[in-house]
Amino acid sequence: MRTSSLPVELVTVSSTGFITGTQTMLDSFLHHNPWFDSPIAVIHDDLPNPVAAKLEAQFPRLTCRTPSSDLARAISNLVAARPSLASRYRRFFSLDLFDGVSARPALFVDSDVLFCASVETVASLDAPIAASGDRAYLAGNRRDPETLAEGAGTANADAFRSFNAGFVRVSQELRQAAMRDRVIGELAPERWSTVASDHTDQAVLNRLFGAEVHILDPSYNLMLGHLGRLNEAAGGGVQDARVLHFNGRAKPWQMDDSLRAMSDDPDFSFALAAWHAAYRRFMARRMGHNSKENA
Q1: How far apart are CA 284 and CA 98, in angstroms?
Q2: Residue pLDDT, tens place only, 194-236
Q3: Phi-psi region of 134 (alpha: psi -120 to 50; beta: other; left: phi over 0)
Q4: Are 199 and 205 spatial neighbours (Cβ–Cβ below 8 Å)?
Q5: Whole-angstrom Cα distance, residue 246 to residue 202?
Q6: How far apart are CA 168 and CA 205, in angstroms?
Q7: CA distances to 5, 75, 147 from 207, in Å
Q8: Which residues contact 158 (CB under 8 A, 6 or more apart)?
Q9: What is the Cα–Cα distance from 18 to 44, expressed in whole angstroms?
Q10: Closest of 129, 149, 152 to residue 210, by C-alpha
Q11: What's the pLDDT tens digit per position in 137-170?
């Protein structure tokens, strides 16, 4: 078994409502990727200190932190100008991935992701940025590079490949100060006035990198919220996925009507069972750790 380190950081965003998803995602990642021994960053703005401290204790090398002040200020200004973004403002925290100082590449992973196999191949890619195509890309449609409007014959989109931001590998070079300035600049309200899609951080990343992204196989980000619309376009299906992404309203740790409705789909039910198996594995590991501490 390979256990050598790759110099790649893992970054995610969490909140009090997503902490269970964060724990399960991280545990599944470490379970399937024994080569990883680099820093983990969890960006948040509402985790109580005891919760953040417990998360740091559960995962060695993990640090919880709030968004950088310049990003927080840019998000606040954008939301003030675009109140429709207020309920989704935390999604922009992922942009702190471009911190301007990092000396290593990074994997950004949404907290509603489940790892089912190793992603070492992605971590070791030699590409500025890599991600799987979004729903429009997989359906054979194009997005306009500026507005992100979707259409089969969208103009000015020949070299543009739209991608989902739930699992992204970013090179060290793109994480430097010059790119951070560009990322923050994309949040200016006047820049946002031309965005025609309902995306948040994904809109920023697509506008900046849609012409240079390396598109990964869909199995590296199988978007469960789009299964019904994509049919076979998403690749080999849930049983062959390396990364399952519970995008959309139905989250496996929230027993609500959205989850119950999606559970009628056999593919989603398969993914849901896989998530709960991973959650049980995490809980068993945590209980074992607690038992040792109390012995």
Answers
A1: 35
A2: 999 999 999 999 999 999 999 999 999 999 988 766 655 555 6
A3: beta
A4: no
A5: 16
A6: 10
A7: 32, 17, 8
A8: none
A9: 10
A10: 129
A11: 998 889 999 999 998 555 556 689 999 999 999 9
Domains, the chain, with CATH or none:
9-294 (3.90.550.10)
Q: How far apart are CA 229 and CA 212, in angstroms?
A: 26
CB 160, CB 137: distance < 8 Å: no
Q: In a 3-state reduction of DSSP, which class is residue 78?
A: helix
What residues pair up with 130 in beta bridges, in sequence order? 169, 214
Decide if 12 contacts 111 (C-beta within 8 A). Answer: yes
Contact of 134 with 75, CB cutoff 8 Å: no
Q: In this structure, what token pair is assigned to residue 148?
A: 């992100």
3 state DSSP class of 142: strand
Encoded tokens for 158: 């020949």
d(C-alpha 19, C-alpha 118), whole Å:
23
Please give the backbone phi and psi of residue 293, each rounded to the nearest 5 degrees, phi first: -65, -35
Instruction: Judge whether 83 and 53 are in contact, CB under 8 Å.
Output: no
- For residue 217, the 8-state DSSP code is P
Angle at 33 between CA 269 and CA 236, to 5 degrees: 40
Contact 88, 200 (CB under 8 A): yes
**DSSP conformational letter for 176:** B
